[in-house]
Amino acid sequence: MHPMLxxxxxxxxxxxxxxxxxxxxxxxxxxxxxxxxxxxxVVGFDLLPEIFHLTHEYGVxxxxxxxxxxxxxxxxxxxxxxxxxxxxxxxSYADHHHPDVGLLSxxxxxxxxxVDGMGIGLAxxxxxxxxxxxxxxxxxxxFADGLNTVGLMLAHQNTHRRALGMxxxxxxxxxxxxxxxxxxxxxxxxxxxxxxxxxxFLLYIGAxxxxxxxHSHRSSALTIALTCLGAxxxxxxxxxxx
Length: 242
Prior knowledge:
Blueprint: H1 3-23, H2 28-58, H3 63-83, H4 99-126, H5 128-155, H6 160-180, H7 191-214, H8 221-241
Helix pairs in contact: 1-4, 1-5, 1-6, 2-5, 2-7, 2-8, 3-7, 4-5, 4-6, 4-7, 5-6
């Protein structure tokens, strides 16, 4: 399985999320609830066990990838807050709706999607199985990214045409990110550190971004059930992948 194939699926997921934002935004909380479960399941059921395995195989001190995990969480937290792309902050900036603000926020999400694509490519350097489960999380997350890209553009009074143009750029970003990793080969002892950092990134977007957004407007037992279903789905995928 080639990483570029899964990056192309991420492209389709991002595009679908943006189009969904235009047509069926009232069901967003259900999609995001499931997405959060998928992302958290990938961290708990696959990335962390793989990190423990690699630290033993390459003689890496376990605390090092855990430092990378916390660092990844905090770095993406800081970047998101500084760039004002966290959806929870939109109400604080309600009086600052301007097309350029929406454009800058959407460009931040494009960079975010580029990192997603790099995550897919580098995960396939660890193993096809890790690549598959990371791709699953990224594809689920990119649906929300596409939705948020269009939502931010329209919320700041951009035209539908500009919103769709930015959606196209966001959809292409994971493909470009995955392609960039074809030129880079990580040394084996670095792999558990990379996985720790990326696990922190996924943990942040799942627990601190996607899940709160899923419950921000219409929290329900169904949303919670879908989150549990998303995590269970990843559990089953990782067990069959073994």
